[in-house]
Amino acid sequence: MGNTHPGATSPLGMVSACAYSGAYPTGYGRYAKNTEGVPEEMFERTEASGFTHFQQSGTGAIRKYYNYVRVTPMVQPLDDLGQSWALHDERAEPGYYAANLDTGVRCEITVGEKVAVHRFTFPDHHSARVVIDLSCGGLAIDLGRTVPLRAQVESMGRGRAQGTVVMEGVPLSVYLEADTPGWRQMLWYDRRLIPGGTRLDFDSIRHTTLRPFGLLFMGSARAGQTIEVRMGFSLRGCEQAKENLHRECGTSESAFETVRAGTRERWRDHIDRVQVEGGTPARRTVMATALYHSLIKPCFADDESPFWPSSGPYAFDICTMWDIYKTQIPLLQAIAPDRAMDLLESLIRVCEEEGNFPIGYRMARGADRFFRQASALAHTAIADAHALGRNGVDWGWALVHMVDDLRRMYGEDFFEHGLVHPITHTLDLAYAHHATAKVARALNDRRLADDLERRSHQWVNAFDPSTGLLRDSEFYEGGKWNYSFRLLHDMAARIEMSGGDKGFIDKLDRFFGYGAQPVKQPGTNPQPTEMATGYALNRFEGLNNEPDMEAPWAYHYAGRPDRTAEIVHSALTWQFGTGPGGLPGNDDSGGLSAWYVWASLGLFPVAGQSIFLVNTPAFARAALRVGDEEFIIETSGHRETPIGVDGLDLDPPAQYVQSATLNGKPLHSTHLSATDVHRGGRLHLRLGPEPSTWGNRIRPPSHSFSLAKPPATSKE
Q: Which PANTHER family does the protein's record reference (predicted)?
């Protein structure tokens, strides 16, 4: 399950809108919460009780995020609000979603960056209505409901209304205009109309006192009559929500097609920044879908921070930083560099105002910042951006926060002992020290850089020299084996710890199941013994979690890029498809989809190291628009490979690089510097069906601890 949804979104926009059933984890669909085996069905059909806003995309074990301000067209009494109706004839495009309800209402939604526009086409009915429920939020699973703390709703007549609900400590305001000529406009509370009422105020709401509330428009509808509801959102009050609405929708009565066309054009511009040639229709569809999913999150709400008053970039829904820092943020740096820098500026501001760089950051106040998953991840993205010479950030100020953040949470133990449990945080913090040292050295603070680099070498404390694997510890959504093959800043020393190239490759081969018998995948409600047997294999499960994204590229550092090619080619061919289940794991806010984009281009960014690893691309030719430049990846000897079952019984794919040139000059190494890619150029790869010696000798760079010993001659 990719855990994505088909709702209307804008590229990296603040607002999304989709049909709402309460299912896990986006609010759309039929499935219950599940982390092992095939997910259980929560509903027998695809259904909806209305249409909500601010859905998650691709997240995993997340309980109750968003799905605020439910809009429901009805031809039933208000007492039926909350009932779900079957969805038919669903249609989804970038920036647009439509479906028919069983009630006979055709529902269409489009969104802009901070607005949503609903259009409903009613059947002939004497008492039709559009109901806006401001009390709704969260998911229909155990402990999944979101309850507002405070709220106010005001009906201003003539199709205008506004309201604010404080959800999880954040004030979400909406200003709406409805094109409902001749219809009545009323507030309601606890499914009862309030004739003549103009305002509802709730100073304190609890789970035990919450009753549904909102407003509605009602009247007779002739067959085919359309009703349009335009909604502007803000985290800084109703007046700013109104300004957002008028800026994107104008002041005319109908804005649906205008907003839809504008968002479609924004999507076209973003998607066109990666062009591919060749490939089967199915592979091209998956590629385009992956690029689309890569550009939904994070949400950017410029000038909307509810936590500090000044203007500037504000980003939320950074719910899987431990995934996106490896793949998606480097993709944004390449094809949307302005937004990538806005993200870093927002993270630095969060650190300044709230005390630490978040590991995850959603539209909520409080300590729920996902600190258990990882430590100090923003440092890698900041170091990469600095190495690229990006502007727009006060780098000295950024370095201050990077250094301070290294000693927060688990960082304090790392500073004192050089070892942290869970053990993966030791790797995070050592890597972040290295990334911060790079920035410090570039800013000529050599004393600080030397100290940071010395501490970065403490990654060795995380490993058991007798096994070449991580020490026993707790592991978040993984195990010792898949976390043991993360890419570190001194991979040469890491490989030596495993007995050299052969020992390291033997362990990787075991992890990826070379020579092993196939295993049975767990079904619905797998028994604990069945799952324990699977975990005991210590096997690569597929690209369904954060550490698995980079593990295939560890072979590059041991001189076996052919192994990388085999695993990545297999993943692109067998683990992704066009139908339900077409993603091998949670999309993780675009982290997994960004992996697919990079892998299809034959590149993999090593976050924090400012390099790209080179591999066989999935397309004959591709062009990456990097800022104002273009980086071309072209091949000779490429063979088209269908995906899934269509790929059976074909000739061996040309999945191995035989030789390479960069801008016409021979390239003998399996890596490029990030500046090579970002300045534009042409990478040519000659491919073949058999492994070659290309890339066996010159390894990607490893950064030894030069203060304690001179660097080995084999390292850069």
A: PEPTIDE N-GLYCANASE PNGASE -RELATED (PTHR12143), PUTATIVE-RELATED (PTHR12143:SF43)
